[in-house]
Amino acid sequence: MFFGSKIPTGNPLDRYLIIYSRKSGRRKLRNREGIIRRFFEKHTIPYFFTALDEAHPKPEDLSLSEIRKGFPFNKVLIAGGDGTIRRVVEYLYFHDLLVPISIFPLGSANIYSRVLKMSFFFEINLRRILHPAEKSMSIGIINGRHIFLAAACFGKAAQFSIDAHHCGKHLIGSLSYLITAFKTEFDFQSSRISYRNEKGISESIPSHSVVVFPDESAKGFMPYLPEKLANFYLTFLRNMTPFGLFRILYSAKFRKKEPKEMELRSAEKVILENTFGTMYHLDGDIMEDSPQKFEIETAPKRVTFLI
User: Fold this and answer.
1) What sign does the CA torsion over 231, 149, 304, 49 have?
2) Model pLDDT for residues 175-206, shown as the tens digit of each residue
3) How far apart are the first and last CA of the chain?
């Protein structure tokens, strides 16, 4: 823990809890711990430092409620990958510790930094701590115990992210998504997914995926869908191959099976069933629930990010 003896350069009322993941992302991105500490000490910003590592792999291992009793922090900085950020925000939410949050993307995909339109340069993001802007985001809740901020993916959209993980995402980053896009190019298995909202309106969706957003604003950046991601990276390359024409005709034939997208309305609850299994994907995190039924709703609270 550090308390500055000089007048702070930033807001003198800031008291930061720093949660640093020593396991996130590729090795070349992990060596940021000292840089963050020196920045806080240079600008005399009071902080308490704790880390997720082999001995403390989960947020619940850090005793954050006890830390707050001894160091009443009013802001949190999370340095780690998308999975780390989501799990920490989830813990803060369910333990009534939610305060404005700064993030430093150290992962392989860094979805949150793209959603928040943050800089790719670590030093620029660090300097913004002194005079940050605020962005409020809705929180989606699944089965009363997991949260998501960007999107919850079920079916093929989830399997796509799981396959990218198995392709070595932690080693090769976004390239794993490109490889997975090639592998899933002609895989359009479809099913009928049951959907019901709290008003009792039901329908059966012919789709290979369902993607649920916390609200309409979260749809601004959506990197999960296999066909969209493949189009983003590969439109020119794959259409110039001998299989390009066949791919276009094949995609057109099965266009009716594109992923179903929906956003939660205020205080709405939706129920999904028959979603291709128990695996699903939340903001960079692979999850599993049983039985195969998902109740999804908008949380009464929102999270504030400092960017």
Assistant:
1) negative
2) 666 666 666 655 545 666 777 766 666 777 67
3) 24
